[in-house]
Write a structure and sequence with these properties.
This protein is mainly β. It is built from 1 helix and 10 strands, in the order αββββββββββ.
Length: about 100
């Protein structure tokens, strides 16, 4: 597997037509802003490679998730794409931020 493509933050569709957006968690979120098509099922796939405790959790009040990010594991978080807009997420200590744009 080409890790550069895996962590590109680009939306890939799986066999179910679902959008998969991969986000590397190392020195923050890469990419820190992702765009998702409205009305198409989507998942953010976080992969943490930094052992800093701050990055061991990702949360979003806007998108209603609060998830632990174990080191070197993929964590898939389903995203409701019914409404368009800009939705923020952050680490557990609110030091690193990211944004999901649905349009």
């Amino acid at each position: 597997m080409n890790l550069k493509n895996f962590f590109s933050g680009k939306s890939n569709q799986n066999t179910n037509g679902e959008q998969l957006i991969k986000i590397d968690v190392n020195r923050g979120y890469e990419p820190s802003e992702v765009t998702i098509k409205q009305g198409v099922p989507a998942k953010l796939v976080f992969h943490r490679t930094n052992d800093a405790m701050c990055l061991s959790k990702v949360q979003s009040q806007d998108l209603a998730f609060d998830e632990a990010l174990p080191l070197n594991q993929d964590v898939e978080i389903p995203i409701n794409t019914d409404q368009s807009g800009e939705f923020n997420f952050a680490c557990g200590m609110n030091m690193f931020h990211g944004k999901v744009v649905i349009n």
